[in-house]
Amino acid sequence: MSMFLRISRNRRGKNVYEYAQIAERYRENGKQKTRVLEYLGPVRDESDMKRYRKDLLLASEKQSIRMIAPEDFSLMPSMEFGVVYASMAIMNDSGILRILKKNAGVYVHILIFMIIARLLEPSSDLSLINLSGKMYYPWSRIVMNDDNIYRALDKLISARDDIEIELFKALKPDTTFVHYDLTSSYFEGREDNDLVLFGYSRDRKRGKEQIVIGLVMADGIPIHHEVWPGNTIDPKTLEPTISVLKERFHIKNVIFIADRAFGRSKSLDLLDQNLYITAAYRWDLPYRNALMNTDFSDGRIMDDLA
Asked: Mind listing the domains of the chain with CATH numbers?
């Protein structure tokens, strides 16, 4: 069946009048027939014909819409896009997107996707692959598999120093106070890696090999991280970390904030070259002696130290 614009003519006396119709050709019993679907009106000039052609187009479009019964519908799982869109906007406004594009090469979209996945569902690499089928990411046709994930991470770690410095310059955090702390991450099974060793487990996982991770934050923003061998004790990380802050980030005057794990004599000698805030056990002699010799007086503190 096909629709067309049909013009019929009627004679009245000496005058001939034209009328527009929407007609349809169809076959019945092997014979082709025509039927009128709609009467449009008189044709007086070309503007009428132009209007009727539009009417024909609309009628043709309506005819092409097939009525679908409810049972013909099937529901498909929705895909996450809100978090993806918001994350992309934040990364673009903050400069992170530009920095990753500059340093990550062809793996930039995999790294961006991994960042978004950490915000949405932080989990394993396998979960990341599964999540890629549930998230709508229209900026790139990502092929998410183990090989691409690890290649992207290799690219990221090789560009880590440059990325940290560029982010630091872009975000401009207040470095009056710098917070520093360590954590550990343990491994199941055995790992053939110089960093994966037995050491003090902050996860209370005895008998598990681990790595130690140091994080520096300024103004609530992480500006530097370092991965240490699993048997590294807290004070040994202090000097190289302060060195990085001064040499790489050019942070000269800083109040260094750390917990009591750094309160050992070698750490104190290093911290005494800077301003710092830390905690101490009351029986820790270096701290107690230092406090007893200060000019300020607080009875509660002095009684507790005595």
From this structure: 2-72 (no CATH), 82-160 (no CATH), 174-305 (3.30.420)
